[in-house]
TrEMBL record:
InterPro entries: CofD, CofD-like_dom_sf, FbiA/CofD. This is 2-phospho-L-lactate transferase. It comes from Nocardioides guangzhouensis. Keywords: Magnesium, Transferase. The keyword Methyltransferase does not apply. It comes from the Bacteria. Its EC number is 2.7.8.28. The keyword Magnesium applies. GO terms for molecular function: LPPG:FO 2-phospho-L-lactate transferase activity; magnesium ion binding.
């Protein structure tokens, strides 16, 4: 095996990638060669804050694999300070609910300056990765602006609905109001970033980590051309369930799946992705050991399925998940 491509969100994806790289570096993968890893990251969480372009999923992957992440928070920089945030709050400048750390701001300044100078996001990401050396090739799903917006109930609005940016739903509203509808602004006009389609077409295996199936992997698949590449590649495509025992492990996958009328279960997500032998995008699917009873239901969809421990408790456990995913497709 020479190359692996992973379609990733932020925290779930980054932690999985850590385990995958651990498996590669400790030669836990069958075969002697160490494959190159390309990561296609979700950028539909991106937001402009205080004039700065912030790319949460790209940065979480970059900081996690580059050993700059704050391990407790799971996002942002380690040893962070918050002077700029506090000063902005003292000016009464909104949004106060989205905190940017001082160290993190440097990343956003570099990115925004390069974007202003005309570089596409993919080139900016490559430049930022020169410092962080994440050990993977990190690509944004698109250089175009795509943003997930969430419609929530608001009795004071004429339509009864108010639409907020995904970050406002997640960070300010803490995802504790139902998401009535999702809107992917700019999706139809977006195209895959340079290298994305090639990375899928030329991979030996494509992996869908336990990232949010709607607002992380779902948005990557929504970029015109990416889903077609997954269906066309000769590489097997294997996913790992982010839903265990009928609940998400963290985050807000339950709210997002409910918003698009998909059953919140490991089998529900498998059915949502669908079998490549039908009109879907996966050949194989791992569910957690506790969901072993769902295996026949997933297999009935035409998807190879196995139940293995899927809790990313430490790099060894996560590495074993990556190995199991690759073994599922030979
Ligand atoms: P992102 O989607 O990768 O940006 O990151 P999130 O952290 O928002 O979502 C991660 C998804 O993976 C959520 O739906 C979680 O339920 C799931 N997840 C997080 N940790 C684990 C884990 O240890 N095991 C499994 N199977 N899923 C996880
Ligand atoms: Ca995310």
């Amino acid at each position: 095996m020479r190359s692996l491509t992973v379609l990733s969100g932020g925290m779930g994806g980054a932690r999985f990638l850590q385990g995958l790289l651990h498996a590669i570096r400790t030669d836990k993968l069958a075969g002697a060669d160490r494959p190159d890893v390309t990561v296609v990251a979700n950028t539909a969480d991106d937001i402009w804050v205080h004039g700065l372009k912030v790319c949460p999923d790209l940065d979480t992957v970059m900081y996690t694999l580059g050993d700059g992440i704050d391990l407790e928070r799971g996002w942002g920089r380690r040893d962070e300070t918050w002077s700029a945030r506090d000063e902005l709050a003292a000016y009464g400048v909104e949004p106060t609910w989205f905190g940017l750390g001082d160290r993190d701001i440097a990343t956003h300044l570099v990115r925004t300056q390069m974007l202003d100078a005309g570089y596409p996001l993919s080139a900016v990401t490559e430049a930022l990765c020169r410092r962080w050396q994440p050990g993977v090739r990190l690509l944004p799903m698109s250089d175009d602006r795509v943003e997930t917006h969430v419609a929530v109930t608001d009795p004071t609005a004429p339509s009864g609905l108010r639409v907020v940016h995904f970050q406002e739903y997640w960070v300010r509203l803490r995802a504790d109001v139902p998401a009535e509808r999702l809107v992917f602004v700019g999706m139809d006009e977006a195209s895959p970033a340079p290298g994305v389609v090639e990375a899928i077409m030329e991979a030996d295996v494509v992996l869908l980590p336990p990232s949010n199936p709607v607002v992380s992997v779902g948005t990557i698949l929504g970029v015109p051309g990416i889903r077609d590449a997954l269906r066309a590649t000769t590489a097997p495509v294997v996913g790992l369930s982010p839903i265990v025992g009928g609940h998400h492990v963290r985050g807000m996958a339950e709210q997002m799946l409910t918003a698009i009328d998909v059953e919140v279960s490991a089998a529900g997500v498998a059915g949502h992705y669908g079998a490549r032998s039908g009109d879907g995008v996966v050949d194989g699917w791992l569910v957690d050991s506790s969901d072993a009873a769902l295996v026949p239901q997933v297999e009935a969809l035409g998807i190879a399925c196995r139940a293995v421990p899927l809790m990313m408790t430490d790099p060894d456990a996560t590495a074993a998940m990556a190995v199991a995913a690759l073994e599922l497709v030979g």
